[in-house]
Amino acid sequence: MTQGEMEIQLLAVVVAAACALPGTFLVLRKMAMMSDAISHAILPGIVIAFFLTHNLNSPLLILAAAATGVLTVMLVELLMSTRLVREDAAIGLTFPVLFSIGIILIARFAGDVHLDTDAVLLGEPAFAPFDRLIVGGRDIGPRALYIMSAVGLANVAFITLFYKELKIATFDAGLAAALGFGPVLIHYGLMTFVSITAVAAFDAVGSILVVAMMVAPSAAAYLLTDRLRDMILLSVALGAASAVGGFQMARLFDVSIAGAMATASGLVFLAVWLGAPRYGILAGRQRRIRQKWEFAETMLAIHLFNHEGLPEADIEHRIGHLEEHLSWERDFARRVVRRAQSNGLVQRTNDEDEDDLLALTPQGRKAASEAIENL
Amino acid sequence: MEQLFSDYTLRMVALGSAVLGIVSGGLGTYAVLRGQSLLGDAISHAALPGIAIAFLLTGGKTPLALMIGAALAGWLATLWIMSVTGTTRIKYDSMLALTLSVFFGIGLVLLTYIRQRAGAAQAGLDTFLFGQASSLVRRDVVTMAVPGGAALLLMALFWKELKLLAFDPEFGRTLGLPMRRVDLFLTALLVVAIVIGLQTVGVVLMSAMIVAPAAAGRQWTDTLWKMVLLSAGFGAAAGVTGAVLSSTGTGLPTGPLIVLCMGVIMVLSLLFAPNRGLAARHLRARRSTGRFQLETVLLDLYALGMQHNDPLRPHPRGAVQAMRAKEVPVDRLLDRLEKDGLVRRAASGWALTDAGLRNVETLKEERT
Questions:
Q1: Are residues B316 and B258 in the same domain?
Q2: Same domain, B229 and B343
Q3: Domain A3-214 is classified in which CATH homologous superfamily?
Q4: How many distinct structural domains can be found in chain B?
Q5: Domain span at B253
Q6: Based on the domain organization, do B88 and B228 belong to the same domain?
Q7: Range of A359-368, B118-127, B145-154, B240-249 with top mean pLDDT
């Protein structure tokens, strides 16, 4: 990789990590779509700040965008407080209107603005190395890398400082309010950081794909762990991996870097959805199969237990009879008996005979009586 | 306005926007009622890779082929959302955000792939991002109207099933209706409504066309068919107004203008709709507080009188005021009650009339 490519790769990783931090809380708080709403709705804020400063790198842009993001959240909550529309409709009404205002402002003053709607929506990290940060006459690297790192560190600081508050407000808002942690304040604080991250990531990945970087790694991490700390770390790691994979893919096929990063994050999520050890669908399917057999074995043990030592045991304790009594297919019944046998629950009197008498082992008797008790 | 009938381009743009407004407004009703307002946003973004693949396969910009590609991708995205939320603990909102952005990313990868392969031949494909209503021609309008009309027709044919789905799917299931299939069917209709709008208002703003007319229509009525008609009407009105406005201004994009018109209709509905609207609610609240205060003063006079075992005994206004917080405008309330003949001025203050006493008796019954 050339130095430029290294810088793009590094920027992509920093963007992904910075986005994953607030993203974790969005996913847990069921507010993932707020990232979509905010990343679109901050457009008018950026445009107006740009009109005032005529400089796309002005820190005022970040401040204005953050303010617009918070304004969006307030508007959504104002709409909801009328109780005339639901939360999803309130979000779906607010951000397209704000975004439209932004687009119209750009179109109206297109003559004197070097702000492209395409760039706003799509972003492209490939141009980042051309905009250098010069300090004291020395070139110290791409400006975007520094901005994004600062935002990432701000996110880290926010989450570390208010970890306890965020955690309680996320999992038990009522308790947080009772303890005086101000869940509303935490909510707006989080939304401010989502806005700041969204605007800083604008140049690199655009307003739609920033949503992918916030939500996809965090959703994948949510399927891998039950601990908040681990989930945050995992989502940062998965985000970084998506950034690396995405950039390499983009290099290979010469396609949009931001798009490839989002695609990679989707693939990471797909892999986790399929293969997660506990919550993945393959693990779930295996668990269901295992449970089916375990249930059948227990049924068999209970059946034998019920008739044990009684006169009818001679008829009831035969594989052939299981078909009738438990309405099992012959083949299935045979497999259940074989499993129960190898698990030490059941003994056969004559291994040669297809339809010999079955008997519970002491272990099988214990399992059956325990199962009956648990009912 | 005159231009609307003379200018061919404007007529087509207005017609196309109206068709879009009617279809998305009508079908959006169900999305909003079912709390799936943001599903439209996910579908419209997810359509992008479908458009790109259709372009790659057909090698050209046939509107119908692109529409079919978009519809398939949007439909696939919905299935993926349903299956992940159905099999894991991932929440619906996470899946919406994830799907819309990841599918959009895939679409972007494909678009850039097409761009470097086909060069300039893909001009116009980008219009799906923001829409380009001003480029609508008769053929586009027909391509929008035919599937859109078919979707509305199907909605009318399966009216009963869809109504059950929106309000009481459990009841539908007990009636033996395949509600899951009805759900998939409705989603397919929604996909059609979204896909026909992509070329006009674009990926980002399409969700507003689904949500806003229906949310506005909801404020005016509690009856489903009225709500469907109203939101279709609102959608059409916003579409035509936006199209006309964009033709008058210099270089104002149609899509955002339509969305802004829709926003204005929405705000007006929230404020001024009868019954549900905020203005109506405010008036109602004021009227009932007023009535409540009048009744309270009447009851207070009675209670004061009963302390002397004479309900008709007069009391000075100061005594009546002392019964309540000083914000209660006792003077005005007493004047009003006097006008209604329920109290009268006596030498030593205010007293209940016979009519007032009868009123008190019924009030006492009402309040216990």
A1: no
A2: no
A3: ABC transporter involved in vitamin B12 uptake, BtuC (1.10.3470.10)
A4: 2
A5: 2-271
A6: yes
A7: B145-154
Grouping H, G, I as helix, E, B as strand and the rest as coil, residue B35 is coil
Q: Do A99 and B205 count as a contact with CB atoms less than 8 A apart? A: yes
Which residues of chain A make contact with B266, given a CB cutoff of 8 A? 93
Q: Are residues B229 and B294 in the same domain?
A: no
- Closest partner residue to B105 (CB to CB) among A89, A259, A284 is A259
What is the tens place of the pLDDT at every residue in B283-337?
999 888 888 888 888 899 899 988 988 888 899 988 888 888 888 888 888 988 8
- CB contacts < 8 A, A to B, total 210
**What pLDDT score was predicted for residue A116?**
63
> DSSP H helical segments within chain B, as ranges?
2-6, 8-33, 39-58, 63-87, 92-118, 127-130, 138-157, 159-167, 169-174, 179-220, 224-248, 254-272, 278-306, 317-322, 330-339, 354-367
The beta-carbon neighbor of A219 closest among B35, B94, B270 is: B94
Compute the residue count for chain A. 375
Here the tokens at position A310 are 């009684």
Give residues 82 to 141 of A whose Cβ lies within 8 Å of B.
82, 84-86, 88-89, 91-93, 96-97, 99-101, 103-104, 107-108, 110, 117-118, 121-122
Q: Which residue of B has its CA nearest to A215?
A: B98
Q: Do A110 and B89 touch (CB under 8 A)?
A: no
User: B265 with B292, same domain?
Assistant: no
Q: Are B12 and B139 contained in the same domain?
A: yes
CATH number at residue B237: 1.10.3470.10
Choose, out of B204, B209, B246, B267, the residue to mutate when testing the contact with A (most A CBs < 10 Å).
Answer: B204
Enter the tokens of residue B350: 């205010």
A30/B94 CB distance under 8 A: yes
Looking at the structure, tell me whether residues B58 and B24 fall in a common domain. Answer: yes
Query: Cβ(B333)–Cβ(B341) under 8 Å?
Result: no
Is the Cβ of B104 closer than 8 Å to some Cβ of chain A? yes
Instruction: Tell me the backbone φ, ψ of residue A135, rounded to 5 degrees.
Output: -120, 120
pLDDT of residue B80: 95
- Among the partner-chain residues B90, B100, B257, the one whose CB lies closest to the CB of A223 is B90
Sign of the dihedral defined by the CA atoms of residues B269, B272, B275, B276, in that order: positive
Q: Residue A15: which of A174, A165, A178, A197 has the closest Cα? A: A197
Point out the domain boundary residue: B223, B247, B271. Answer: B271
CB-CB under 8 Å, A209 with B104 = yes
The interface predicted TM-score of the complex, written ipTM, equals: 0.88
Neighbours of A98 (CB within 10 A): 24
- State whether B108 and A27 contact (CB < 8 Å): no
Tell me the C-alpha distance between A179 and A191, whole Å.
22
CATH of the domain at B346: 1.10.10.10
Residue keyed to tokens 């019920």: A306
- The whole-angstrom separation of Cα A265 and Cα A259 is 10
Q: Tell me the shortest Cα–Cα distance from A38 to chain B, in angstroms.
A: 12
Do the Cβ atoms of A100 and B90 come within 8 Å?
no
Among B241, B271, B301, identify where a domain stops. B271
CATH match for A283-374 among 3.40.50.300, 1.10.10.10, 1.20.1740.10, 3.40.630.30: 1.10.10.10
Residues B113 and B179 in one domain: yes
Q: Do A93 and B252 touch (CB under 8 A)?
A: no
Least confident range from A120-129, B74-83, B162-171: namely A120-129
Facing B90 at nearest CB: one of A108, A219, A261:
A219
